[in-house]
Specification:
Oligomer: single chain
Strand order of the largest sheet: 4-13-12-11-10-7-6-5
CATH topology: TIM Barrel
Radius of gyration: 20 Å
Number of strands: 14
Structural class: alpha/beta
CATH superfamily: Aldolase class I
Number of helices: 18
Shape: globular
């Protein structure tokens, strides 16, 4: 597959390729949102309502995309967000994505619900890797996972606080996700055709071990958590502000709290000892009808008052989206679906192409905006229309 042809010029093109390669149940896991998917759509539409304000007659020889987040310097102003179950999209999916991020000089954030061992993912990247935490399995299980991540060299802990239960993802229900995970041939039969319709994906999936377990969630009996057990486990693993105390004591490094949408919660996170907050509505996959991440960003930036660094994710499909978010106060952004489409389309080369597309977009946007660097972006260069 020629990812540099005229057929692959933006993230939407990678999305189409992923849709062609993946079974519907897997593609919709990446692509879908909660309930009516209003927030999913609003995350993208919010960027359309931001107007860039270029400076004319500005000359520079090159643009500088470097940014520093929590003391770490990245060659790009975006990191790859935690995306669970990436091994479903492509064999050794989390390792593929981490390797592509490292090649590009940026960071990769590994989800707790990864199909690959965290030690293998860290070894796959040349750059920083962060670890995202769910408390599935309970405190004892989480503590062991944190110790492994710390020992493996993960540098920042990302604590997700917006997932007390899984969101109502209607596409998953219609695609028979629960039935396909059950292992019951009778229940699976009405839905198995979508897997058989993608033989190339199915062959790779089976060679990679088939339905995964989660090797970074090791239960007290020594066995990794099974895929079908994650949903019920989430409902028993709510993160509270009090949990930040023992989490910080074990981690002993920078902590970012992900899932912040209000100024009040930003202040609570800072009071609980967080070093950064990530403005996020989980890509529209949890509570439908909440604010688009970009709309929530200015309130969180104002409430943080420089006490914590502010990042954001949600709806980013073009490099100009990254620029707009940084103009409105984000230190850097996380991209999730944008690289997941690339992973689903072509594995590591697909992720590399997604990163390359976004990088080229950012360089072009900065040049046209009259800004020589990411550090030179500010609120004078963008205006949010309400």
């Amino acid at each position: 597959m020629n990812l540099h042809s005229s057929r692959v010029v933006n993230i939407a093109d990678l999305r189409r390729l992923a849709e062609r390669r993946l079974p519907r149940v897997v593609f919709d896991y990446i692509d879908g949102g909660a309930d009516a998917e209003r927030t999913l759509r609003d995350n993208c539409l919010a960027f359309d309502r931001v107007t860039l304000r270029p400076r004319g007659a500005v000359a520079f020889t090159a643009v500088d995309l470097r940014t520093t987040v929590l003391g770490q310097t990245f060659e790009l102003p975006f990191l790859l967000a935690p995306v669970g179950s990436s091994r479903m999209f492509y064999p050794r999916g989390e390792e593929c994505a981490a390797a592509a991020a490292g090649d590009a000089g940026t960071g990769y954030i590994l989800s707790t619900v990864s199909g690959c061992r965290l030690e293998d993912v860290k070894a796959a990247t040349k750059h920083a890797a962060w670890y995202q935490l769910y408390l599935i399995g309970g405190r004892e299980v989480a503590e062991r996972g944190l110790e492994r991540a710390r020992d493996a060299g993960f540098s920042v802990l990302v604590v997700t606080v917006d997932t007390p239960v899984a969101g109502m993802r209607e596409r998953d229900i219609r695609n028979g996700t629960t039935a396909l995970l059950s292992g019951n041939p009778i229940a699976m039969l009405p839905h198995i055709g979508q897997l058989l319709a993608r033989p190339r994906w199915l062959t790779g999936f089976l060679r990679d071990g088939g339905l995964m377990e989660f090797p970074n969630v090791v239960l007290p009996d020594g066995r990794p958590m099974k895929y079908e057990s994650v949903g019920p486990a989430l409902a028993q693993s709510v993160v509270t502000w009090r949990d930040l105390d023992w989490i910080r004591q074990i981690w002993r490094g920078p902590v970012a709290v992900k899932g912040i949408l209000t100024g009040d919660d930003a202040r609570r996170a800072a009071d609980a000892g967080a070093n950064a907050v990530i403005v996020s509505n989980h890509g529209g996959r949890q509570l439908d009808g909440v604010a688009a991440s970009l709309h929530a960003l200015p309130e969180v930036v104002a409430a943080s008052s420089g006490h914590v660094e502010v990042l954001m994710d949600g709806g980013i499909r073009r490099g100009s989206d990254v620029v707009k978010a940084i103009c409105l106060g984000a230190k850097a952004v996380l991209v999730g679906r944008a690289y997941a489409y690339g992973l689903g389309a072509a594995g590591r080369p697909g992720v590399a192409r997604a990163i390359e597309i976004l990088r080229a977009d950012i360089v072009r946007t900065l040049a046209l905006l009259g800004a020589g660097s990411i550090s030179g972006l500010d609120e004078t260069l963008a205006k949010m229309e309400r």
